[in-house]
Design brief:
160 residues, 2 domains, two-stranded antiparallel sheet
Length: 160
């Protein structure tokens, strides 16, 4: 009888683990409803064309622009991927990355207050940065910075 109860406990534990992994998988495939939250932030620094550091209530937060990617501004592994994807030289990728960074700097002035919109059900990206729509005003209306970069051919749609 003791052996049977050990086997039963083991089977229940395996089923529980399978259920948990199945639930987690479903949550990724079928995310919860979108729950957007607006935050008013001040620009501290533009890291590159798709990453910005903001001040939110005296705390620095790093934000990745939602839905886009821009060219790299320095040599790294991502630059190599972009080289394969687009066929550009290192110099051309870095030049295009710097153009995107300058565009962001022109549209987000240091110290000014802007509105960012974050889906609080899924706020973080792969590297732990907030994923957000960034507006070039403080009312979260109008075009997002991501859309402006796309329209000016300084970004491309983000692919996972």
């Amino acid at each position: 009888m003791n052996r049977f109860s050990d086997i039963l406990k083991f089977a229940i534990m395996i089923l529980a683990i399978i259920s948990i992994f199945g639930l987690l998988r479903c949550m990724k495939i079928y995310p919860k409803s979108v729950n957007l939250q607006n935050f008013h932030v001040d620009v501290i620094r533009v890291i590159d064309g798709d990453t910005i550091v903001f001040d939110y209530q005296k705390l620095p937060i790093i934000v990745r622009l939602k839905g886009i990617d821009t060219f790299e501004t320095k040599l790294n592994k991502h630059l190599r991927k972009q080289q394969k994807q687009f066929g550009y030289s290192d110099e051309e990728i870095i030049r295009r990355g710097m153009m995107a960074k300058q565009f962001v700097r022109r549209n987000l002035k240091l110290g000014n207050t802007y509105c960012i919109q974050i889906d609080i059900n899924h706020p973080f990206g792969y590297y732990g940065r907030y994923i957000a729509d960034v507006y070039t005003n403080n009312m979260c209306k109008g075009k997002t910075l991501s859309n402006m970069l796309l329209e000016n051919f300084l970004a491309f749609k983000y692919k996972k």
